[in-house]
Amino acid sequence: MRTNHIITKGFVIAAASLLLTACQDQLEETNTNPNEAIKAQPEYLLANAIKSNADLTLGSDASMETTTLFIQHWAKIQYTDPDKYTVSIANVQNVWTNLYSQGLTDFATIIKLGEESGNTNYQAVGLILKSWSFQLLTDLYGDIPYSQALKLEETLTPKYDSQKDVYLGLLNDLKKATELINTTGAPIGGDLVYNGNLTKWKKFANSLRLRIALRIADKEPETAKAVVTELAKDKTALIASNDEIAQLIYLASPNQNPVSRDRETRDDYRVSKSIIDKLQELKDPRLAVFANKTVDATPTGYIGVTNGLPADSAAKLGFTKTSKLGDYFTAAASPAVFVSYAEVLFNLAEAAQRGFISESAPDLYKAAVTASLQQFKVGNADITAYLAQPSVAYNAATFKKSIGEQKWIALFSQGLEAFAEWRRLDYPQLKPAYAGVLNGKLPLRLTYPTGEQALNAANYKAAVAAQGEDRLTTRLWFDAF
């Protein structure tokens, strides 16, 4: 009797288990959306991640409220605290979070999907964009989680790698990406940059390698020279015209340029006095592209705002008597530029001046200035007149000044890259914000987000100990002088 009872009870339990399993399977089938992809699709991830990163490079957190003000391309005429270097904790956190949890996570998934499907072109494009994202992060913060980042199954508290190691790792990753690209292989979808043109993706990767090589040139000249020498053997393997610029061209609302969207409801930015004064000094035809004339008549038609004014002083300048950002940059379809042809030429000019390649630095410099002017639709006659001015001519003895000032102009509204190159080249020699809060200094980085201090405290502390105080004024490794 007892044995039969136990056997009967066992069957009941087994049957109940089978019944529950069957019910669960039926529920899962019932709750499955037939229109929803079970597995991530690389083309959708790619499109989403490209736009996410593009939005970040032009948006409030990494650009409008930080780097574009630091570099004195823009200034504030209202709510001027950010222009005095009172950086919002939210801005700092958002840049970090959005790059790691959105762009980088999606790019890592695209790489994995490419590996699983055997499509090396998805692997390559994912690796290029992943490298670009890490470059943005280390340029802004310095030492960052890199080698252990995005490996949640291994650690939730990744170590911080030194900036030197990050840059060297990116150079290797980008070279690997160019080797993975198969221009006659499987196509890719979701490409908002080059519409599936894999030859241009290889050019983008090589141009990023050139950028990083110059970024480390003051600290690791031999490594920089080796990379540049390799790349210069075939300059057609780099971005070689304005038609090949790596950029996202936006669409109409609701997919418009973030600056355009911001200007729909706000009017607190103006063009900085620093750049308007320089453009006027050089009789630069890009002035009419970068800035709008004042609504009210003014002596020169263009009036910039001094960075970092107290709010009442800025307001007294008058909304109609100061220059707004040019229509080119506030148009819905205005592009987010990742790497321009002009930048590539400036980098080659500097490489020639440093002796990394045996070419004419003045000729490459002139070509770079020309490319920038053409990028902004300046006519040939105006280009010729501009280049003929002694104030624009290349000076080998002060090449960082020649290249630095013209690159600063060419990178107008590319706040992140302009901020990095200004720190590296030390030109133009900007004055700190009028009422800045950094004791007469300019920012040299972003501070780490408070989330890292709370959730990754041990590694955060180790990074600060290695790099220096977690302040806006702490000089990063690449910024040698």
From TrEMBL:
<dbReference type="InterPro" id="IPR041662">
    <property type="entry name" value="SusD-like_2"/>
</dbReference>
<dbReference type="Pfam" id="PF12771">
    <property type="entry name" value="SusD-like_2"/>
</dbReference>
<protein>
    <recommendedName>
        <fullName>Starch-binding associating with outer membrane</fullName>
    </recommendedName>
</protein>
<dbReference type="InterPro" id="IPR011990">
    <property type="entry name" value="TPR-like_helical_dom_sf"/>
</dbReference>
